[in-house]
Amino acid sequence: MQWLLGAVVALPLLGAAAALLPAPPGLRGRDPEQAVLRHGVTVTGVVLAAAVLLAAGFDTGQAARMQAETDLEWIPALGIHLRLGVDGVSLPLLVLTALLTFLCALHSYARMPEGPSARGFVALLLVLESGTLATFAVQDLMLFFLAFEMVLVPMYFLISRWGGEDRARAAWTFILYTLLGSVVMLLGLLLIGLHAGTFDMTALAGLQGATMSRSVQILAVLALGIGFAVKTPMWPLHSWLPDAHTAAPTAGSVLLAGVLLKMGTYGLVRIVLPVAPEGAEFFAPYLAAFAVTGIIYGSLACLHLVRRGSGGDLKRLIAYSSVGHMGFVLLGIATLTPTGVNGALFANIAHGLITGLLFFLAGAVKERTGTTRLDVLAGGGGARFYGRAPRFGGVLAFAAVASLGLPGLAGFWGEMLALLGAYRPAEGLSRPVFLTAMAVAAFGTLLTAAYLLIVVRRVCMGDAPPLPLAPGGASPLPSTAPETTATAGTSVPGGATPGDAAAGTVGEGTVTVAASRTGDLPDLRAHEYAAFTPLVLLTLLAGLWPAVLLHLTDPAVQSLLPGVGP
Asked: Cβ atoms within 10 A of the Cβ of 425, count?
């Protein structure tokens, strides 16, 4: 088991180095670009297989104990070790990362994003995977910081070199926000390590803050909280996220939403709650307030984007929805109860599965129609996926109702447990404050259902064209005008009005048509079946059998919060 965890973390790095080398003669094939993409699929597939084997060998009866541990001395003068291990909190995130990266590599093999060479794309994807896996596996504060920062550079280049419109600004915003947050986080990690006399995360969790005064714990949690809040992202430190998601290629958006956002909440559960419990208790009401503000803010932003005539973008809407969904994760953590924290960890995994699927679908929408602008997709009959690509439309509707938290699907349990945790927060916290937060968050679920159902209606059914009026506006007249067909690539003056186009990009005064209004759209393709099916099945599995995750996380959470939960 020890070597297996080490292999899971190290194999992507070795694969990244190999991707930059010339391929051996027998493996070059006819197309060097396809050969290196095939290499990416192979490496991520092996890592996924190793992660599944690690999960299969995990002793679920001892989920609170670190397993598959490796401990090598690295910097003796500072007491820093290369220490790896997994428990019930980190194992699901490890497997989720390996799965989503493999699906991204598989999807990119069939649909490589436009940009520089595939060699650099695959290498960056593998470095990103290694850094994310290491973040969830390391058990030393300094190693955690290095792994946490390791993912920033590859994600920056994936956005800036393979991204879409306005990618340079989005990439710079991403790197500046996350780097500044990381500097503050480093100060908090050093403060904890120096006061406690060790950087060993397992030992620090066992101390429960005994070596730090209340004021030191408050300062440490403040510093760590800022760094983790940027990565989560928590309102109001979220503003880098919509631009990054909108500009990123499909693989970048999937990994950013599916696993990178989880690094911040994982840090709160793994480090802040057990290491500085008094500091966590001090900031818990503020964290709950920011969390529910993010839930309402994200939902209202999505409702604005989905309105007809707002110029909203589907990828941007999914990004803002992540702000709301991660608000439930933060609310669960803020309750400081096993119920709430278990709900937060469950919501983490559910969000990774569902939002990863949504971003895959958003990329597929753009491939089919040339745009993700909602007004263009819905206007004049629009994409109308139910009629023109019914299987694709069905998967899109499934992902949307899973995201809104329909009972029986994965999105339901995390939000429900977070609300239950807020109903009865940990001893010492103000119950009226958390009951208010629970009520506001519950209202946010209604807003979430509203905008996601509107998305399904507009994208899968289209907007109904307005009826023409008789002279003077007396009464509507039946439309007898023949349905017009726009030719791909043409520009229609006058802006985006119903009937102009099924898809396109909206500029000032023109619409660039990308698909004929009457033409058929391709339904699900083979590589899309391969990428979407595992996410759909796991969303169903987690929704119908939540114990498959809670059985892993609950013992570990109980050990991280001794005597705190009810």
From this structure: 27
Structure confidence at residue 432 (pLDDT): 92
Separation CA 514–CA 505 (nearest Å)? 8
User: What is the predicted pLDDT for the residue at 514?
Assistant: 40
Q: How far apart are the first and last CA of the chain?
A: 34
Q: What is the pLDDT of residues 491-500, one digit of tens each?
A: 333 333 333 3
CA gap 109, 254 in Å, rounded: 15
pLDDT below 50 — which residues of the chain? Answer: 467, 469-519, 564-566
The answer to whether 1 touches 94, Cβ cutoff 8 Å, is no
Cβ-Cβ contacts under 8 Å for 331 (sequence gap 6 or more): 288, 291, 292, 295, 340, 344, 418, 419, 421, 422, 437, 441
**Side chain identity at residue 166, one-letter code:** D
3-state secondary structure (DSSP) of residue 286: helix
DSSP 231-251: HTTPTTS-THHHHHHHHS-HH
Amino acid at 97: T
The two structure tokens encoding residue 399: 């992902």
Using DSSP's 3-state secondary structure scheme, residue 200 falls into strand
The pLDDT of residue 329: 94
- Taking the C-alpha atoms of residue 6 and residue 85, their distance in angstroms, rounded to an integer, is 9
Please state the φ and ψ torsions of residue 503, each to the nearest 5 degrees: -160, 155
How crowded is residue 25: how many other Cβ atoms within 10 Å of its Cβ?
6
**Contact indicator for 105, 122 with CB cutoff of 8 Å:** yes
Give me the sheet containing 503-506, strands edge to edge.
491-493, 510-515, 503-506
pLDDT of residue 60: 86
In Å, how far from its chain's centre is CA 19? 26
- For residue 83, give the nearest of 67, 70, 64 by alpha carbon: 70
- Report pLDDT for 381: 55
pLDDT tens-digit map of 527-566: 889 999 999 999 999 999 999 999 999 999 998 886 543 3
Q: Tell me the domain boundaries of the chain.
A: 284-370+390-458+525-566
Name residue 466's amino acid.
P
